[in-house]
Amino acid sequence: MPIVRHHVKSGWDDIGMRMQHLWEQTLDWIGDDGFKLYVYGMNGWNIVLYWTVGLALLFLEMSDWPKWLIRYKIQPTVTVDRKRLTSLIALNLFNQFFVAIPFTIFGYYVLKFQGTSPPIRELPTLTRLVVSLAIIVVIQEIIAYYAHRMFHHRLLYKWTHKVHHEWTAPIALTASYNHPLDHLIVNILPTTVGLFLTNAHFFTTWIWLTWATLRALSDHSGYNVLKFLLPRRHDFHHQKFTDCFGVWGPLDYLHDTEKLFQKNVASLKDREKSN
Length: 275
Ligand SMILES: [Zn+2]
Ligand SMILES: [Zn+2]
Prior knowledge:
Its main location: membrane. With 275 residues, this protein is mainly α. The protein folds into two domains: 1-30; 34-274, no CATH class. Helix content is 69%, strand content 0%. It has eleven helices and no strands. The chain has helices spanning 2-30, 34-63, 67-70, 85-114, 126-150, 154-157, 180-197, 202-220, 231-240, 250-254, 259-274. The protein is globular. 29% of the residues are buried. The mean pLDDT is 95. Residues 148, 152, 161, 165, 237 line the site of one zinc ion.
């Protein structure tokens, strides 16, 4: 056994060494200036990713194509109202350029002030990467659930979160269709607080934000394709407003805010069985 273990260990070490080498080569090519990497690199990457996937899904939605995809539509009778697309695109761009980018600049200077960030050139170990991501997922779940519920309070809802709920049948690009304050507190903070608390490496931040962007797009896509990401949950939240405030759902279970959703899932299963 020790021999096998030794091989496994050296296998991981080997991958780690190669990754480190590749990372250094990439930084030699793009530069390792912290401000440029965090502000231009991270935002540029996320904006391109968001619009590429979001617009591609919008195109498929508007053209009712391909046929196999239509079977996965969560609300199959609803079509996109073209008249709403201008405000959808405008608010997305506003949030990216006037909320997300200023927040990244602020975050960068907080990191610089703290001075404890791991050196960019030295990749985190696999264990550190996995443990950091696990903590970040838990922190996101907790803050997202309570912040989201708070924005459903009648005093806040009317002038903030109501905007996001204009879309009762969401499409991918409604992921950042929020009042700017709502975008900052319900979308950005839950996703990023964990990065500060775990003193995340730039590489961890990049992996996490890529994941979070894709997850938000899937949650709002209106398609139940990536079932393991539970897109029905958030889609149902847009339909009913009273259930499914969390990302994965443990706090909805704990606070009993998924009763209607569970009933809906049960009736869908019954319908599938009888067909
Ligand atoms: Zn939403
Ligand atoms: Zn909501």
